[in-house]
Design brief:
The protein has 183 residues and is of the alpha/beta class. It has one domain: Rossmann fold (3-Layer(aba) Sandwich), CATH 3.40.50. Helices cover 36% and strands 27% of the residues. Strand 7 and strand 8 form a beta hairpin. It is globular, with a radius of gyration of 17 Å. The relative contact order is 0.12.
Length: 183
């Protein structure tokens, strides 16, 4: 994403600090605390669900925007008002979830004029809409969760080659679990 859009947004230089938590939630929590307290980061990126759950209380306490890019779990954004999820229920689509995660960070920084406090960034992320590589998506302003199209396809041989042929599109699909909870 940064190769396409640069490393400066709203006058702020974007610097990625990558730490490997090994998929261990206790490591995630320790690393997030080091980044928030020691490095004074403006935004935390989270990966898998257990890591996001471990980081959520820190995000709430520090009031720091945290973008969850790989979690397929419905309730992840409910763990903190500072969590915004850009992945959906198929966590194997990691690349696009991370691409969209960076997009939401960049656009929120633009909206806030470079203001990096958690409340301002999360408010800027709520309701955001854009055209992703996976199609049109948005962030639900109530749940801070992704809304996206679901495409039903089948594989057909066309001209001797296999292609995904689109059969139907279900537009602006919210997380089914959250929709069911509202009823």
């Amino acid at each position: 994403y940064m190769q396409l859009h640069g490393s400066t947004v709203a006058g702020k230089k974007i610097e990625l600090i990558v730490k490997d938590d090994g998929g261990v939630p206790d490591n995630s929590k320790r690393i997030a605390q080091e980044l928030i307290v020691g490095e004074k980061v403006a935004v935390v990126g989270a990966g898998i669900t257990p890591s996001a759950f471990a980081i959520a209380p820190l995000a709430t306490q520090a009031k720091i925007a945290t973008v969850v890019m790989v979690s397929g779990t419905s309730v992840v954004a409910e763990r903190s008002p500072y969590l915004v999820r850009t992945s959906f229920y198929r966590p194997n689509f990691i690349s696009v979830g991370c691409y969209d995660g960076m997009h939401v960070i960049y656009e929120a920084l633009k909206k806030t004029g470079g203001k990096t406090d958690g409340d301002a960034l999360v408010a800027a992320m709520k309701g955001m809409k854009w055209e992703s590589p996976r199609g049109p998506i948005s962030i639900d302003p109530e749940t801070r969760d992704i809304i996206q199209n679901i495409y039903v396809r089948k594989v057909e041989k066309v001209g001797g080659e296999l292609y995904n042929i689109e059969l139907a599109t279900f537009e602006t699909v919210k997380d089914p679990l959250k929709v069911a909870k509202k009823k």
